[in-house]
């Protein structure tokens, strides 16, 4: 008695989504002998095959199970499926099979092919769930079948494992179409359509994208989540952001029933032990489990489709599917909880054998084996430090009790350097004091070498605290105490000497010291210190006016970050910050903004006070563009950060520069006067940050009407620039001095200073300071051009600057975003027409872009909508504001911005 359902293809496809991506792959299947759908359970192999062949009349379907390992049973069902597909075109062969008149399957299939030789129709034979077949006679027969079957026939196989059907040969001969788990996994577009069909509430694309990534597109997981969402629709957004909200029990039940419980005890135990590892190779697993057959076992598991995948680009490295890994951890915690610590300790040792101490520390944290942790930190901590593995080091050190932490001077030093390298300068001094007290209490004596290392650190702290004389003394002491083999601290001490000379304005002495530091750091593979030396060299060259070479050094820095994987080291932020500063000076604002935003990404894991420089740079970029609303938000962020922490004068000076430029653009003299009441006056002007702060003071004096004091400050600054060869600061000072002289009615001197500034800019390319002073120097530039007071190169530069200054985008690009509109609508003196006929958010955006000077086509491009849509928005806002044309719209925008306190032209 034959079971009819074994010969019936799936019919319930009404809930299945169409998958054109895969259907396109199968479009020319008639030219291939085998179509193989191969993946672990739940990837929709059967559904995909049924959907593809749904409209094809000549399809035979054979649903396999364990009982079909009997060749007689297998042959009879296969022939019945073929007769069903071919309208009984092979009845003779079927009769032979029923009477068992065949010696082997090959003999039977020879008769079959002879009987089908005149059958004209393209036929598909589907063997569903072929992974249940383990009878070698059947495999032999099917290999014969594939080799000799008629050209009008295509065999379709679905399987969780690689079927032994000669697929390698077929692949080489281009006679195989294969859809594996990566192909069958849902992509983002398919995921969106899948949930749209099942869940009534609209879900954000980003949320679905996150969800798909977490389950790696596994259709069964998405199906269970969709069912969960139908029952609890308000929870899908949370599930999409994190699977923590999702009831995993259904997934665990599915994986247990369909996969785990079908395995033998040895394999189940092997998987549970391996689940302690996020990724693994044979050596790692061998050290963990003690099994010499680890590689064979892994390859077997991969071949039989157990949610294990080779890592791309890595030979013989594997990982589990995310959800299967979580399932195995769940099983491990439930069934062998007593082995948890032992497994993590073995995993830590296995990773150490692979020379991967960071992974080893992850596991000893899990096992809470602090003695083992101290051993790893002592042996490998500095190596990890040099490669930027800061977070895991700090987490481990923070988990140690004082007895273990302060038992090792090397560990104490590592802790101190971790704080120093992450710019926690104010914390380092306290940590040094605590460490010295604990070492004294524990009777720990430092030898000269260790004392030298501590002095090198003290020197670095002193330079960061603005105490260059103390830093120089400590660094020289360190160099006298340190043996030649203690290269890391010698590198630091040499670097500090260079920084001291930099701060004191001795640039010609600072630069070779930093070059020596870089050379030593590269020689001994202390790459984060090599990066620091490159950044210091770049700053020195920038101060000397060698802006292009300074920028090229930054390119070397980016290469070092890439080659040595230093992307999340805080110094990477310094690199991006310097790049943004130079790009701003060159008026490459889009690139400068990109660099500043990237620097925020680097700092994301750290204390947000470190982001002051990035926000002040973003504010400066927005001010240069005339985006006053955006600049105000960035400056508010700067104010919040400055209220919460103390900063080096370099950081404060840059932030104050942005504030002053903003207040100048808004004509906010009262804020400038308030700033002057508390402004810091540096005790010198021999370096770039002292120069910047004095320039801030001069600008503030100028804007508040104290022209004489502003002139006095600039005169002192220029003398200091001459003494210390600060070419770039001289360039900036001359531009401001030209403005001061103009306001003092000394036009002749203003023209002289501006001409000299232009001459310097021919070599530095520094145009940013000209552009932010446009309102004061634009007419001076025109006079220099008209009166032919410049050489040819300077004349070209002046004309270029005028073109930039005349660009309307540079002066009045204001975004009417939601925050600005909300403030505007809350103004007490807002015209009643605006309040009673409010514009939509889109209409406000359009008004802002009209004010900027955009055409309809440019507005459409900016907002990514059709030009006809923009016309509709413009018509609506004209009606609501009772205006007739663009000129009136621009005037209305000006009036509204004036109410907000913006300076408009």
Quick gist of this model?
By secondary structure, this protein is mainly α. Helices cover 67% and strands 4% of the residues. Helix 20 (370-386) packs antiparallel against helix 21 and helix 33 (612-625) runs parallel beside helix 35 (649-666).
CA(first)-CA(last) distance? 93 Å
Helix content class: 55-70%
Strand order of the largest sheet: 2-3-4-1-5
Largest sheet: 5 strands, parallel
Describe the structure.
By secondary structure, this protein is mainly alpha-helical. 67% of the residues lie in helices and 4% in strands. The strands form 2 sheets. The protein has a 5-stranded parallel β-sheet with strand order 2-3-4-1-5, with helices on both faces. The protein has a 3-stranded antiparallel β-sheet with strand order 6-8-7. Helix 28 (507-523) packs antiparallel against helix 29 (527-543), helix 29 runs antiparallel to helix 30 (547-563) and helix 34 packs antiparallel against helix 35. The longest helix has 18 residues, at 649-666. The protein is globular. Mean pLDDT is 88; it is low at 237-242.
List the helices and strands and how they pair.
Blueprint: H1 20-25, E1 34-38, H2 45-53, E2 59-63, H3 71-85, H4 91-98, H5 105-115, E3 123-128, H6 136-148, E4 153-159, H7 167-172, E5 176-179, H8 181-184, H9 188-198, H10 205-215, H11 219-231, H12 236-241, H13 249-258, H14 265-274, E6 280-281, H15 282-289, H16 294-303, E7 308-310, E8 317-320, H17 322-335, H18 340-353, H19 357-367, H20 370-386, H21 390-399, H22 402-405, H23 409-421, H24 425-441, H25 448-464, H26 468-481, H27 487-503, H28 507-523, H29 527-543, H30 547-563, H31 570-585, H32 589-603, H33 612-625, H34 628-644, H35 649-666, H36 669-678, H37 688-703, H38 707-724, H39 727-743, H40 747-764, H41 768-772, H42 774-786, H43 792-806, H44 809-812, H45 818-825, H46 832-836, H47 841-852, H48 856-863, H49 867-881, H50 886-899
Parallel strand pairs: 1-4, 1-5, 2-3, 3-4
Antiparallel strand pairs: 6-8, 7-8
Helix pairs in contact: 3-4, 4-5, 5-6, 9-11, 15-16, 15-18, 18-19, 19-20, 19-21, 20-21, 20-23, 23-24, 23-25, 25-26, 25-27, 26-27, 27-28, 27-29, 28-29, 29-30, 29-31, 30-31, 31-32, 31-33, 32-33, 33-34, 33-35, 34-35, 35-37, 36-37, 37-38, 37-39, 38-39, 39-40, 40-42, 40-43, 42-43, 47-49, 47-50, 48-49
């Amino acid at each position: 008695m034959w079971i009819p359902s074994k010969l019936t293809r799936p019919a319930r496809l009404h809930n299945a989504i169409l998958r054109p991506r895969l259907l396109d792959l199968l479009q020319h299947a008639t030219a291939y002998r085998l179509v193989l759908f191969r993946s672990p359970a739940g990837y929709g192999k059967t559904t995909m095959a049924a959907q593809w062949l749904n409209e094809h009349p000549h399809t035979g379907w054979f649903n396999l199970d364990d009982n079909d390992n009997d060749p007689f049973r297998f042959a009879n069902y296969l022939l019945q499926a073929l007769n069903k597909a071919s309208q009984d075109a092979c009845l003779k062969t079927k009769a032979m099979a029923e009477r068992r008149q065949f010696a082997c399957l090959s003999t039977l299939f020879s008769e079959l092919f002879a009987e089908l030789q005149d059958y004209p129709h393209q036929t598909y034979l589907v063997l569903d769930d072929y992974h249940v077949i383990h009878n070698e006679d059947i495999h032999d027969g099917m290999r014969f079948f594939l080799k000799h079957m008629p050209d009008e026939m295509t065999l379709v196989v679905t399987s969780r494992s690689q079927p032994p059907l000669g697929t390698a040969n077929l692949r080489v001969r281009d006679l195989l179409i294969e859809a594996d788990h990566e192909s069958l996994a849902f992509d983002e577009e398919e995921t969106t359509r899948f949930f749209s069909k099942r869940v009534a509430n609209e879900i954000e694309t980003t949320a679905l994208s996150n969800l798909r990534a977490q389950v790696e597109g596994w259709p069964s997981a998405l199906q269970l989540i969709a069912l969960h969402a139908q029952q609890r629709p308000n929870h899908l957004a949370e599930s999409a952001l994190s699977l923590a909200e999702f009831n995993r029990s259904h997934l665990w039940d599915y994986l247990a029933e369909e996969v785990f419980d079908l395995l033998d005890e040895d394999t189940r135990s092997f998987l549970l032990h391996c689940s302690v590892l996020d990724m693994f190779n044979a050596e790692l697993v061998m050290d963990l489990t003690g099994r010499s057959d680890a590689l064979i076992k892994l390859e077997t598991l991969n071949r039989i489709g157990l949610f294990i995948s080779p890592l791309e680009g890595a030979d013989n490295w594997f990982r589990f599917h995310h959800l299967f890994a979580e399932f195995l951890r769940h099983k491990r915690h439930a069934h062998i909880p007593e082995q948890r610590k032992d497994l993590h300790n073995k995993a830590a040792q296995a990773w150490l054998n692979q020379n991967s101490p960071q992974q080893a520390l992850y596991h000893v944290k899990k096992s809470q084996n602090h003695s083992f942790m101290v051993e790893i930190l002592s042996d490998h901590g500095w190596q990890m430090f040099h490669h930027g593995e800061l977070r895991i080091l700090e987490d481990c050190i923070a988990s140690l009790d004082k007895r273990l932490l302060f038992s090792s001077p090397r560990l104490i030093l590592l802790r101190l350097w971790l704080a120093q390298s992450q710019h926690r300068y104010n914390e380092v001094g306290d940590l040094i004091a605590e460490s010295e007290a604990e070492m004294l209490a524990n009777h720990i004596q430092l030898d000269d070498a260790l004392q030298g290392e501590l002095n090198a650190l003290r020197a670095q702290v002193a330079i960061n605290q603005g105490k260059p004389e103390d830093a120089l003394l400590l660094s020289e002491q360190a160099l006298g105490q340190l043996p030649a083999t203690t290269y890391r601290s010698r590198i630091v001490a040499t670097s500090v000497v260079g920084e001291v000379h930099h701060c004191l304005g001795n640039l010609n002495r600072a630069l070779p010291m930093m070059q020596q530091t870089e050379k030593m750091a590269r020689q001994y593979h202390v790459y984060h210190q090599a990066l620091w030396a490159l950044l210091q060299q770049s700053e020195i060259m920038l101060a000397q006016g060698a802006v292009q070479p300074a920028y090229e050094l930054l390119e070397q820095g980016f290469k070092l970050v890439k080659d040595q994987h230093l992307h999340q080291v805080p110094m990477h932020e310094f690199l991006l910050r310097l790049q943004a500063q130079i790009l701003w000076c060159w008026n490459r604002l889009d690139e400068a903004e990109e660099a500043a935003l990237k620097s925020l990404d680097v700092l994301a894991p750290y204390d947000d006070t470190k982001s002051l420089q990035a926000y002040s740079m973003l504010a400066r970029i927005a001010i240069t563009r005339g985006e006053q609303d955006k600049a105000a938000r960035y400056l508010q962020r700067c104010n919040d950060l400055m209220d919460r922490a103390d900063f080096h004068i370099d950081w404060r000076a840059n932030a104050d520069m942005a504030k002053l430029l903003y207040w100048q653009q808004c004509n906010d003299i009262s804020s400038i006067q308030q700033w002057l009441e508390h402004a810091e006056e540096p005790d010198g002007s021999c370096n770039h940050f002292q120069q910047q702060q004095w320039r801030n003071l001069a600008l503030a004096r100028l804007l508040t009407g104290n022209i004489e004091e502003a002139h006095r400050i600039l005169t002192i600054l220029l003398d200091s620039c001459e003494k210390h060869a600060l070419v770039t600061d001289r360039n900036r000072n001359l531009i401001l001095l030209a403005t001061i002289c103009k306001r003092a009615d000394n036009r002749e001197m203003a023209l002289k200073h501006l001409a000299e500034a232009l001459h310097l800019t021919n070599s530095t390319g520094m145009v940013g300071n000209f552009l932010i002073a446009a309102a004061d120097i634009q007419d001076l530039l025109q006079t220099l051009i008209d009166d032919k007071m410049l050489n040819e190169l300077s004349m070209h530069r002046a004309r270029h600057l005028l073109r930039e200054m005349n660009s309307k985008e540079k002066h009045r690009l204001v975004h009417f975003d939601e925050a600005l509109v909300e403030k505007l609508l809350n103004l007490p003196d807002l015209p009643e027409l605006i309040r009673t006929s409010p514009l939509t958010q889109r209409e406000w955006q359009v008004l802002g872009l009209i004010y900027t000077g955009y055409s309809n086509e440019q507005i459409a491009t900016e907002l990514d909508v059709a030009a006809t849509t923009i016309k509709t928005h413009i018509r609506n806002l004209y009606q609501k504001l009772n205006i007739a044309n663009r000129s009136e719209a621009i005037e209305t925008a000006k009036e509204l911005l004036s109410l907000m306190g913006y300076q408009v032209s």
